């Protein structure tokens, strides 16, 4: 099984968005419906969600007008209001506003082997199982000759991805004491601007610092020769480099000592520490050249071991059910991603989708 793909032919932001919205209307409206159910289950009212969506779009228009135009274009193509597409892009911010909690989420490994060899990366992407049809792969050209390829959710402008400047990103959610309901720039749009504009870790960090946010996340940036986890929260932005061994591992807790003082996710659901320890204990396998081998090294199921590969407990409400929906590696030399639909326990050489 593979994720649906779409290649934009339009270069104007509004036209590009409208083209995507037209061709992926069913998937985008379905994704919005799934998030509407999630927010309602977590305690938000429709009126609150609309206000948050409108605020997110306004913040986007002030920080990245071209991305706001693209959101408006997607809405036009999909037959939605712009604030509704903004809701999909601001789902992290809305969940922070609701103060939603949950055990699942993603694990990321980056190893810089040195000696001129390319980085070895792999990530699991965990999310709610009722949204398993949301992911898609999208290729676009935000500037002449600059191509972006992203694994994202239908209607969201970016998530995990790579560009033809040779920069790629992984993406994990975080939670911080300073997260607020005063919705700021959506972190998914920070990821998109990094893919659109950055070729170095420093450029990516500068983009992150320029945004006023209300929710936390970490964007792990990788190029052919460098990597860093850019931890983003309302309390500030921190750049966490690899260790002396070239290893950079991230789950869902802050690594920067100053930001870690306000840690929320791990204080309520400490499984992130267990997953991080599993990665650290298996660095040798995560350092291998073969992506299938790296993905299988990730493999670990709860409750007895670190739940890096998540499967939903169907007895739980939908906002407490988690599934590893994708396993992803970045191929920096080829400027491509390799994507597997599902968790590491289902990975074989034949299941990778090259994008």
Automatic annotation (TrEMBL):
Which Pfam families does this UniProt record tie to the protein? AAT
- Top-level taxonomic group: Bacteria
> What range(s) does the Peptidase C45 hydrolase domain occupy?
122-343
* Cited InterPro entries: C45_proenzyme-like, Peptidase_C45, Peptidase_C45_hydrolase
The UniProt keywords, alphabetically, are:
Acyltransferase, Transferase
Q: Name one GO molecular function term.
A: acyltransferase activity
Where are the residues of the annotated region Disordered? 1-23
Q: Where is the composition biased (Polar residues)?
A: 1-12
Annotated Basic and acidic residues bias: 13-22
Query: Which PANTHER family does the record associate with it?
Result: BETA-ALANYL-DOPAMINE_CARCININE HYDROLASE, PEPTIDASE C45
* Alphabetized NCBIfam families for the sequence: C45_proenzyme
Q: What is this protein called?
A: C45 family autoproteolytic acyltransferase/hydolase
**Lineage of the species this protein comes from:** Bacteria, Bacillati, Actinomycetota, Actinomycetes, Streptosporangiales
């Amino acid at each position: 099984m593979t994720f649906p793909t779409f290649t934009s032919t339009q270069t104007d932001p509004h036209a590009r968005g409208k083209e995507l919205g037209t061709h992926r209307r069913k998937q985008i409206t379905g994704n919005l419906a799934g998030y509407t159910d999630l927010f309602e289950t977590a305690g938000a009212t429709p009126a609150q969600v609309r206000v948050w969506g409108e605020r997110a779009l306004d913040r986007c228009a002030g920080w990245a007008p071209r991305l706001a135009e693209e959101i408006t274009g997607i809405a036009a193509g999909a037959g939605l209001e712009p604030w509704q597409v903004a809701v999909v892009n601001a789902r992290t911010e809305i969940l922070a506003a609701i103060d939603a909690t949950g055990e699942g989420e993603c694990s990321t490994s980056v190893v810089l082997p040195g000696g001129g060899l390319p980085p070895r990366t792999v990530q699991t992407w965990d999310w709610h199982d009722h949204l398993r049809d949301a992911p898609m792969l999208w290729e676009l050209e935000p500037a002449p000759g600059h191509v972006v390829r992203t694994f994202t959710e239908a209607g969201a402008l970016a998530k995990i991805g790579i560009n033809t400047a040779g920069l790629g990103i992984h993406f994990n959610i975080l939670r911080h004491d300073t997260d607020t309901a005063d919705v700021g720039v959506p972190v998914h749009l920070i990821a998109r601007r990094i893919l659109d504009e950055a070729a170095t870790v420093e450029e990516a960090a500068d983009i992150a610092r320029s945004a006023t946010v209300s929710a936390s996340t970490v964007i792990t940036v990788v190029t052919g020769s460098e990597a860093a986890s850019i931890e983003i929260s309302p309390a500030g932005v921190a750049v966490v480099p690899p260790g002396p061994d070239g290893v950079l591992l991230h789950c869902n807790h802050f690594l920067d000592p100053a930001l870690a003082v306000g840690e929320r996710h791990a204080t309520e659901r400490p499984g992130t520490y267990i997953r991080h320890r599993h990665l650290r204990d298996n660095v040798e396998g995560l350092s291998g050249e073969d992506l299938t081998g790296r993905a299988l090294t990730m493999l670990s199921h709860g409750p007895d071991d670190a739940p890096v590969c998540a499967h939903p407990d169907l007895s739980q409400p939908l906002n407490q059910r988690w599934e590893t929906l994708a396993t992803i590696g970045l191929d920096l030399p080829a400027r491509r991603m390799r994507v597997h639909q599902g968790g590491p326990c289902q990975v074989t050489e034949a299941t990778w989708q090259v994008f």
